[in-house]
Design a protein that fits this description.
- With about 220 residues, the chain is α/β, with parallel strands linked by helices.
- The chain has 2 domains: about 1-135, 3-Layer(aba) Sandwich (Rossmann fold); about 155-215, Winged helix-like DNA-binding domain superfamily/Winged helix DNA-binding domain (Arc Repressor Mutant, subunit A), CATH 1.10.10.
- Helices cover about 50% and strands about 15% of the residues.
- It contains 11 helices and 5 strands.
- The protein has helices spanning about 1-5, 20-30, 45-50, 70-80, 95-105, 115-125, 130-140, 155-165, 170-175, 180-195, 205-215, and strands at about 10-15, 35-40, 60, 85-90, 105-110.
- Strands 2-1-3-4-5 form a 5-stranded parallel β-sheet, with helices on both faces.
- α5 (about 95-105) links the parallel β4 (about 85-90) and β5.
- α2 packs across α11.
- The radius of gyration is 18 Å and the shape is globular.
- The relative contact order is 0.12.
- The model is unreliable at about 1-5 and about 130-150 (pLDDT under 50).
Length: about 220
């Protein structure tokens, strides 16, 4: 009985009002973190806290929401319900860190971290063995799956990838980068080629968004 309980996946919920990132994070967890059971992902605090799936054993919250609900209130609500809390933020400031941790969050992590590292931190917090990095390395060595390396992108390629993954068209990417349409198109083509060479397909837009989220380009 104890063995079965120890092996049960950790129930997990995600709150982030950036829906593209939320979808990408959710997809990544389901594909690469079988030791977590993602039962709730929400883009608003109201939807999150009123869900029948709340609370979960672990909650991962975005520090900033468009709603007028402070990080302190959100963290304390989750803690009072019995959940452990990880706060993710694109604002890696000492003030933001102190606010989250003082409210009771167990960890404050930058959104620039690869999702594999975020989930490895979650494993350590929940006392779970193993790591996604170790498993991904095994996949690479066994040749039973893609070699999950992060390709080296130029600054222009990174910017184009980020803008495109956030929902901008190729022409809008070109306008925002102040380059020609063909230049923006070339940036995105090179990004796809580099991910393909790394064994991480990105030919479809959904795949490209997922790669951007995995490698910390969406913050």
């Amino acid at each position: 009985m104890r063995t079965a309980e120890a092996a049960a996946p950790v129930t997990l919920s995600l709150l982030d009002d950036h829906e593209v990132l939320l979808d990408s994070f959710s997809s990544w967890v389901r594909e690469h973190a079988a030791d977590f059971d993602l039962v709730l992902s929400a883009s608003t605090w109201s939807q999150f806290v009123h869900s029948a799936a709340f609370p979960t054993q672990l909650v991962i919250l975005d520090f900033q929401l468009r709603e007028q609900v402070s990080i302190e209130a959100r963290v304390r609500t989750c803690r009072a319900a019995g959940a452990k809390v990880i706060v993710l933020s694109g604002l890696d400031s000492q003030e933001a860190r102190d606010r989250a941790l003082d409210a009771g969050a167990a960890l404050f992590l930058s959104k620039s971290l690869p999702l594999a590292e975020v989930m490895d931190s979650a494993r350590r917090l929940m006392g779970r063995p193993g790591s996604s990095q170790t498993r991904l390395a095994s996949v690479s060595e066994d040749r039973t799956g893609p070699v999950l390396h992060r390709p080296r992108l130029s600054q222009g390629e990174q910017s184009a990838l980020t803008l495109y993954a956030l929902g901008h068209s190729t022409q809008e990417v070109a306008d925002k980068l102040n380059v020609q349409y063909e230049t923006a198109k070339t940036y995105l083509r090179r990004v796809r080629e580099k991910y393909a060479k790394a064994g991480r397909p990105a030919s479809r837009k959904a795949e490209l968004i997922r790669r951007a989220a995995e490698d910390g380009y969406l913050r």
